[in-house]
Design goal:
The radius of gyration is 13 Å and the shape is globular. α1 runs antiparallel to α2 (about 30-45). It has helices spanning about 10-25, 30-45, 90-100, and strands at about 5, 60, 70-75, 80-85. The chain has a 4-stranded mixed beta sheet, with helices on both faces. It has a single domain, classed as YaeB-like fold (2-Layer Sandwich). With about 100 residues, it is α+β, with helices and mostly antiparallel strands.
Length: about 100
């Protein structure tokens, strides 16, 4: 089955913020981060159910090279990206974002 990937505006904000932070640290590092997130999203699109479900059906995929996780849910033929958060970030962020869609 082919899934449609939807990136929520909050997740886009996460990406923008992290991109700028990495670019400030070293020119080009933000682009490397975006490439890893893109690879993660493409992996999720091919294998959306590979990660176990957690809080209210959310799943998470850890990026390579960077300590970030892509948090998403699978609904019928859609994959909804809720957040791109640091790996140490607690569950409060997801609880807040999941309220907006469920």
């Amino acid at each position: 089955m082919k899934y449609r990937v939807i990136i929520r505006p909050e997740a886009e904000d996460d990406l923008r913020e992290v991109f700028l932070w990495y670019e400030e640290k070293r020119k080009g590092l933000g682009y490397d981060f975006l490439l890893q997130v893109d690879a993660g999203i493409r992996f999720i699109a091919r294998n959306p159910n590979i990660h176990q479900t957690e809080y209210r059906g959310t799943r998470k995929h850890f990026t390579k090279r960077f300590p970030y996780k892509i948090i998403y849910i699978v609904e019928k033929d859609k994959i909804i990206i809720l957040a791109v958060a640091h790996g140490r970030r607690g569950p409060a962020l997801i609880k807040k974002r999941i309220k907006g869609i469920k």
